[in-house]
Amino acid sequence: MDPDDFQMRDRYHRANPDESRLETNGVKEVTFIMSITYAAEMKKPASKYTLRNQTCPLNLDEPQDTMKAQFSIRISHALNPQLLSHEDYKVSWLIPCVLSKPVLSLLNKKDFNVLVK
Fold first, then answer.
1. What pLDDT is attached to residue 12?
2. What distance in Å separates the CA atoms of residue 42 and residue 51, rounded to the nearest whole number?
3. Which domain holds residue 58?
4. I need a labelling partner for 77 at 20 to 30 A (CA). Which of 7, 34, 90, 102 fits?
5. How many structural domains comprise the chain?
6. Own/partner pairs for 108-113, CB < 8 Å, 24+ apart?
7. What is the tens place of the pLDDT at every residue in 8-43?
């Protein structure tokens, strides 16, 4: 899917917040809110971080590789790295009412499956 398609859907959902997040085929869509920064920023106190926030809406029935590709696009836009390798990034998730600390990795297939269930 083209990143512009995601941006258009994201703008629609922000303009229509009461609209159900269910797609017509019954698959739930979630929006990942990414806070992206350089490793050097993480050495600073948390109040001094410079974060570049990106959103990434995805359907929960999409494979993990699709999620990785979309995250790579967001990282490229935010940081413009010379070389982009998933092993160079720490990607974790949290849902405040379910998992209060980002301790599970989205790059690990087993942890990814926990999220989509």
1. 44
2. 10
3. 3-116
4. 102
5. 1
6. 109/64, 112/64, 112/67
7. 444 444 444 444 444 446 778 888 888 888 888 888
